[in-house]
Amino acid sequence: MRKKVIFGNWKMNGTNAAVEEFLSVVDAQANNTEVVAGLGLPFTALSTGLKLSKNVKIAAQNVHFEKNGAFTGEISIEMLKELGVEFVIIGHSERREMFGETDNTVNLKAKAILAANMTPLVCCGETLETKEAGKTVSFVNNQIEKAYAGISKEDAIKTIIAYEPIWAIGTGKTATSQDAEVVCKAIRENLAKIYDQATADQISIQYGGSVKPDNIKELMSMPNIDGALVGGASLLSKDYLALVNYNK
Ligand code: PEP
Question: Domain total for the chain?
Answer without folding.
Answer: 1
